[in-house]
């Protein structure tokens, strides 16, 4: 072979080299130009760190009792790593992988309680499935089933209690658990009545137990970073916050399935009632959110999440003035609670208004917005910052074209709303609120799991919880003010100590 | 097929190199993009392969295999075409890959994306590249310019 042939044969090599040169230059340039001055300014203010506090699972096993195994109770058990073998089998490959990879919290469910016998048995079966197996690998083990919560919270086998009952039982169970020295994770809303808010706070504080309220939005990356943006003063003077609920499906409007086999023989109706005395009613038992005797409507179920996420960012506490209007405008069933509602919360001494607006009969997506005179934040599947054209803080960046006013700047790109494992409309609504999943270091994580892990760390090591009793008290009072405002048709005020 | 003179080889060599570069870069770009996945491409497919893609999406193993396989094939085909070695094999693999890309979003007259850079009906750029690879697989310019010439030394002094 002569030199000419060799050159022809190797003609491709310099081309490969040229490609390698240009590609590496491109990669380096992209790294270098990743952030302009405006972006550098923002990220220096919010200091996004990639590391998250790791939960501690090595201490001795904590023994948890679960009261209530409805929709939410089931979800909480799953977030702790417990599902019935039947449900494990029904998971899609992807969902099963997420479930199996969920870290072991080193807890044991030593007792379950529910007023509906089939659910009680199901809860025990889930609690027994410590190996997270399907039917073929499942081995039975006994789990104590309690018919009355009092026996569970006072049992010496239980160190901590997870409460996921109807709203009207949250307070009595929390108080009795705290009095028995048990730590409590309680679902929102904190209570069903105003006086209970004070009683719960006192019981938790006097007994020095670790309390966490079920606002898992505290763990969502979007919320955590938004809080940093706001607390760094990047929005200027915040004067208006707009937050919403939009759902449009029977499930989203709390028209839950009523099992045909349910009846007085397997529903403990007597213990379901608290201060009332009405005859057995299946609809009341399974769709309790529709009735004032057991629930607090939008206020307790969904406004509390919105309020708490704003409280997480602004730390503004209880509003001074609350009004609520609305009505039953679409779901003309037997419900008593409104399906369309506007609650306005005023903070005159902090110079801003918080508006909550909800419809259970339209699912259009209305992102949450925090508005300041320098910039605004919008919460969609991404967290967007909009700089004001007249901004003073950003004047130079606007002049240098590092940022264009009123155009969205993406702060974080949370995966929570994109996950394709999500199917139902209600789930999509929750996901967009950071109530289902968040991304931690690029991995999709269940926010409820993180919220429970934080509570368990608090019990084991005394580390702080993000929605403890003080935050819960503010949520509880605010939710009750909104309920009173609607039911009594009046303006409700907070004088710093009590509701007037 | 025989190429009659060396002048005809030059444009074919350039064409092969250009297509190889395209494949190579698609592969490397995906390799270096953190979190790149074929998931969204597959999920939004509306063509005749929709059902097949859904099966891949349902299964974690298949999806990982697809993600890794696409990157591996793109880079491999790219290197072979640039170097001019095993070009018939590389061109054939490239054609198969392009057929998948084409059928995933076939331009059969449905409403096209407003943001697409052009508008296509039945023939799109994937098909043009596919046809170019066909030409290369038949004429094999690597016999004149490319590693094929050295490795197999099957056509000296032409």
UniProtKB/TrEMBL annotation, chain A:
Transmembrane segments: none annotated. SUPFAM superfamilies: Glyceraldehyde-3-phosphate dehydrogenase-like, C-terminal domain (SSF55347), NAD(P)-binding Rossmann-fold domains (SSF51735). InterPro entries: Gfo/Idh/MocA-like_OxRdtase_N (IPR000683), Gfo/Idh/MocA_oxidrdct_glycsds (IPR050463), NAD(P)-bd_dom_sf (IPR036291). Pfam families: GFO_IDH_MocA. Gene3D superfamilies: Dihydrodipicolinate Reductase, domain 2, NAD(P)-binding Rossmann-like Domain. One of its GO terms (molecular function) is nucleotide binding. Residues 62-215 form the Gfo/Idh/MocA-like oxidoreductase N-terminal domain. It comes from the Bacteria. This is Predicted dehydrogenase. It comes from Thermophagus xiamenensis. The lineage of its organism: Bacteria, Pseudomonadati, Bacteroidota, Bacteroidia, Marinilabiliales.
From TrEMBL, chain B:
Keywords: Membrane, Transmembrane, Transmembrane helix. InterPro entries: DoxX. It is a multi-pass membrane protein. Pfam families: DoxX (PF07681). The chain crosses the membrane at residues 6-24, 61-83, 89-108, 120-139. Its main location: membrane. GO terms for cellular component: membrane. It is found in: Membrane. This is Thiosulfate dehydrogenase [quinone] large subunit. It comes from Thermophagus xiamenensis.
